[in-house]
Design a protein that fits this description.
elongated, paralog of FGE (formylglycine-generating enzyme), 13 helices, alpha+beta, about 450 residues, disordered N terminus, 2 domains
């Protein structure tokens, strides 16, 4: 058993698992070095995890025994004893008017609380100093100001600081993962090796597949397109003189774009959340307006084929795509962002390189004549690791024919650029420069879907 809450590093690593593909610039020597590092850290982790198990079991026995002794009254009394002088001093400042006095009260709590907790006498309180301090700060943070925070009595604060640790109705492993493991002294070596091993595994995964680096730090299902200078690819597959030719563009802010197109399963989840009147408006329809998902008599709802849940959703107009994205806290990529994702800084004609190649995408040449599960063509990833940028389904983007950005709050019934090509398109039309025009509020068909985008969170 491994203890502790999953770190963000572990969560990032889980996103990366199982996505191996053709690798650019593989350094075999670096991989071998990292494999040895992971093996060494794993052995150390196993040892520290075994030691932590002893700490875990010992603390569980002590806490459960204390909880049975008059609801942990002795532990609470010991904690109340060391808190009293600190809280009295802080209350004295907080009772006086003025911002300066409130700051002094906060400073007392910040500086003197750790020292006071060193004076705890009873076990297992000595092992819980960090946990108790974190719990008290959490209680105080829930109030509007320091004066309100100190209105609780010493006894109430002592009880709140220990209530979760002593609550025998909560399984101990939940109490441990709920904060104990982050602060118990005996867990320090484990916490360190836990982070080191997680990082080493990520480093190894990226060494084996460098494109995975663009997923680290992103929400699951996204990969970053860095800010910088790119090229908006020229028209190919549509009237050459009808749109602007190749031009340089600038992405001023890092954007996260979905690794794959939105699937039937993801769209169905949203459809099910809508009232019936709204549901009918957004169900996928073909170009004749006929609902594409069959009615399931048993469930009383229109459903995509069971074997196509992981295929991209199609039959969606721009308005439906935009509303789905908003619920996910996202939007659709702009044309500039889409071209940056597809061509990268090297202005690749195809997501994978300069020339069309078989088995890289789901286009007319593949012979499927239908959508495929997203991510099936692993050899055709884009320069930042995105799947199905070429082929499978064409994609709505957030830019009108004129180059003006679409306002999601007020979509005009005008022509919007659609990029990427579909399973029905030939070699030229799945290139990064391919573009088509569709009416934002009217057009929907069996070859057009969409993917999500959002700006990377601002760094504070």
């Amino acid at each position: 058993m491994e203890f502790g809450k999953p770190s963000t590093l572990i969560l990032s690593l889980l996103v990366l698992v199982g996505m191996a593909a053709a690798q650019p610039k593989i350094d075999a020597k670096k991989i071998a070095t990292l494999e040895k590092k992971v093996a060494r850290l794993q052995a150390q982790f196993d040892q520290d995890n075994s030691s932590l198990r002893e700490t875990y079991n010992a603390l569980e026995r002590k806490l459960d025994k204390a909880a049975q002794e008059n609801d942990g009254a002795k532990l609470k009394a010991d904690l109340k004893r060391v808190l009293e002088p600190v809280l009295a001093k802080a209350r004295d400042f907080a009772s006086k008017s003025g911002t300066a006095n409130r700051r002094k009260a906060q400073q007392v709590l910040k500086n003197e609380l750790p020292k006071a907790l060193e004076k705890l006498e009873l076990e297992p309180l000595g092992s819980l100093k960090g946990y108790i301090e974190a719990r008290l700060r959490s209680v105080w943070s829930q109030t509007a100001n320091i004066s309100d925070a100190l209105t609780l009595s010493d006894e109430d604060l002592a009880s709140k600081a220990l209530e979760t640790a002593l609550d025998q109705t909560i399984p101990f492993f939940e109490r441990w993962n709920g904060g104990l493991s982050e602060s118990v002294d005996g867990g320090a070596p484990y916490r360190l090796i836990y982070k080191q091993l997680a990082q080493a595994k990520i480093d190894l995964a990226v060494a084996k597949d460098p494109l995975l680096a663009f997923q680290i730090g992103c929400d699951p299902g996204f990969a970053r397109v860095p800010s910088g200078a790119y090229t908006l690819a020229s028209t190919s597959g549509f009237n050459q003189g009808y749109r602007k030719k190749t031009r340089r563009i600038s992405i001023d802010r890092e954007v996260w774009i979905g690794l794959h197109e939105v699937t039937n399963e993801e769209y169905l989840e949203w459809i099910r959340s809508l009232p019936e009147s709204e549901r009918q408006k957004h169900l996928p329809r073909n170009s004749s307006g006929v609902i594409m998902w069959a009615l399931n008599p048993e469930k009383g709802e229109n459903l995509p084929p069971a074997d196509k849940m992981n295929h991209p959703v199609v039959g969606i107009n721009l308005k439906s795509a935009v509303q789905f994205a908003a619920v996910r806290g996202c939007r659709l990529p702009t044309e500039a962002e889409w071209c940056a994702m597809a061509g990268g800084p090297d202005v690749l004609p195809y997501p994978w390189g300069p020339n069309w190649e078989a088995d890289r995408c789901n286009d007319r040449e593949s012979g499927n004549n239908d959508t495929t599960a997203v991510g099936s063509f692993t050899k055709g990833r884009g320069p930042f690791g995105h799947y199905d940028v070429a082929g499978n389904v064409a994609e709505w983007i957030l830019t009108y024919e004129s180059g003006k950005s679409v306002d999601p709050a007020k979509i005009e019934d005008d022509n919007v650029a659609v990029r990427g090509g579909s399973y029905k398109d030939g070699k030229r039309d799945v290139s990064s420069g391919w573009v088509w025009l569709k009416r934002a509020l009217f057009d929907r068909d069996s070859t057009t879907g969409f993917r999500l985008a959002r700006f990377a969170p601002s760094k504070k």
